[in-house]
Design goal:
This protein is mostly helical. It has one domain. The protein contains four helices and no strands. Helix 2 crosses helix 3 and helix 3 packs across helix 4. The longest helix has 26 residues. The model has no long low-confidence stretch (mean pLDDT about 85).
Length: about 100
């Protein structure tokens, strides 16, 4: 698990800190999924699947951002969090549009 966090650009943490971070990430994903479900309405996938899509998009976005190596501001962790959130929301939006279109 630590290798994944390091790959995403997050610092090495002790196990209790890592568990708290995972809890925060999952809670934030469910909160964003609930908001997205309210916005997308019938175009959404339900809160649980919205959260899964958000997490997948955030992981992919963070990996791509890390590979590109860009930094905005002074905090790479904050930049990774913003990029991950935006990438997850974009993937969910694309999925919602594709679902309505098909």
């Amino acid at each position: 698990m630590r290798a994944y966090f390091l790959m995403l650009g997050l610092p090495d943490m002790a196990m209790p800190q890592m568990l708290v971070l995972i809890a925060i990430i999952v809670t934030a994903a469910f909160a964003l999924a609930w908001i997205a479900d309210a916005i997308l309405g019938d175009g959404g996938f339900g809160v649980f699947f919205n959260a899964v899509i958000l997490l997948i998009g955030a992981f992919i976005g963070a990996l791509i951002w890390k590979r590109l190596g860009y930094t905005i501001g002074t905090s790479p962790q904050a930049t990774a969090a913003i990029v991950s959130t935006c990438a997850g929301m974009v993937l969910l939006l694309i999925g919602g549009v594709l679902r309505r279109w098909m």
